[in-house]
UniProtKB/TrEMBL annotation:
The chain crosses the membrane at residues 12-34. InterPro entries: PPIase_dom_sf, PPIase_PpiC, PpiD_chaperone, Trigger_fact/SurA_dom_sf. It is a single-pass type II membrane protein. PROSITE patterns: PPIC_PPIASE_2. Belongs to the PpiD chaperone family. It comes from Shewanella aestuarii. Its main location: membrane. The keyword Transmembrane applies. The keyword Transit peptide does not apply. Keywords: Cell inner membrane, Cell membrane, Chaperone, Isomerase, Membrane, Rotamase, Transmembrane, Transmembrane helix. It is found in: Cell inner membrane. This is Periplasmic chaperone PpiD.
Amino acid sequence: MLEKIREGSQGVVAKTILILVILSFAFAGVSSYLGSNTGVPAAIVNGIEIPETELEQAFQNERASLKQQYGEMFDALSADDNYMQSIKASVLDRLVANTLVDQAASELGLRVSDEQIKQAIFSEPAFQTDGQFDNDRYQAVLRQLNYQPITFRNMMHVDMTRRQLLNALLGSDFVLDGEAKQLAEVQNQTRDIRYIAVDAMPFLATANVTTEDAKAYYDSNLTQFNSPEQVSLEYVELNVNDIAKDVLVDDAEISQNYEENQAQYQTPEKRLASHIYAASGDDAADKAKLEAIAARIAAGEDFAELAKTESEDQFSAEQGGQIDWFEQGVMDPAFDEALFGLEKGQVSGVVKGEFGFHIIKLVDIQLGAVAAFDDVKDKIIAQVKEKKALDIFYGLQTKLADTSYEIPDTLLDTANAVKKEVQTTGLFTRDNPPANLNKPALVKAAFSDQVLTSGMNSDVIELEPNHVVVIRVKQHLDAGTLSFDKVEMNIVQRLKQDKANETAREKAAGYMTQLKAGDFALADAQLITVSKLGRFNQDIDAAIANKAFKMPAPEAGAVSIDTAALGSGYAVVVLDKVNAAETIDVSALQSVKEGLARQYGQADYRAVIDSLKAKAKIEYPVAE
């Protein structure tokens, strides 16, 4: 988890940190802090429920990660229900694995102390300035991530306990110097080869393919020429962003909005809080402890000194209990209500919060203030334009829905009603809709009975918030086999290429026979020599290099000879010698060892999870 923060903290955009940490937490099994357990659970692992809300949160985080990774291509992938269900199943499998690891750690009595958590955070570079822990930076990073210190500490506890078990199970893996050296030597050996490539392209001109040949191929391979169902659409589109471009706003409206809505432009009141915290897990003991401390404060003892010695939130304790500035509604309800019910300098009684008990002191108050007109003018203009555009949009959307429903066999009247034009698409399949309409709901509607079979206008389809369309079919092609006349030219080209390749193969086979007989004086070609060819050499065709490293080492005084299929043609490869790896430096050897260790660790982790699953009772309830 801290690795994710460290990576994120080096970026310039806080969103990067947020995404990385949320992804880490989502799969650390801690979303129980963020949601409630309601309804049928997604799974029950040895009696412990994984709530559907936890699965849904993890799944949405995985979707966000995939979208960031694949970009626009993910829109097409996400339209495939089977694909998305497989992703969701893999996410649930990870949550089950995490739960099994947590249960195993609990059974073994593994614990992580507050001091260990504290040291992990203190030593984290993301929270340091000039190599030293910086509490202000720590608080700032957590604010960027929208986490409170207490919540973050609890998440750290879960994460570190789990890692403690996994490190104990997997940390015993080691790679022998000998095996790493052996693998490094194999990877870094070189080969001396000669080769000749026979290009098929020159033989294309003489390759003869008749219509009968093409038809015979077509008849024997009809499944290759299946055509998926296709449709082209007419559609009318409404987008609030397009409407907003034409909205005009005058100065009088802006000034009036500012005067009437000054509460919107007022910076909220902030309060600086300190607390003394107890969260041992024993509510009665925690409450009793803080009640005793409250009595000492009432008797005149210093709040900050007591926080330093008695508070279980060690980070704030070092600051005399001081946490941070808070706006109303940021902390959990009980803490928030207590803090905003105090006068400056006043101390609360014992407050039961979401994760423990607090005594809260209001250290200071920063009153809110109304922002100057010039500072918020651009914001007001945007808001007024957006409101006007939305009012227009909602009115047009109603007309769009009513007219397309009342006159379902054309979109012309609908377009006229909303003062838009009827747009069209080319033919597309379920897998390649136009980019501007590439939404699962639209694709589903485009191939629905209402649109295809009945020929009616669709219902209003939302592409994005305040961005809608109504569609109707323009042309529909059923799935079927493409006719021969439409694919004949492609078949002819394919068969010509096959014949050219066959001619190249025969010529290469002739070269190989001659070379194996020991005659290297080729009449119409010359072998190309490559000395010390590396495994990943990019200067020659990859097929030739791959073949060279698959061929057996030649016996003394002999060579190995074989052919390799190229993209267009064939090659004859002569392996003259296998060269042992030259001196392998320490860093290269260490890299090989680390790679092997990762492979071993991954295999061991899978084995541990498989073993835990085999012994566990795992249920996947189905909602009735």
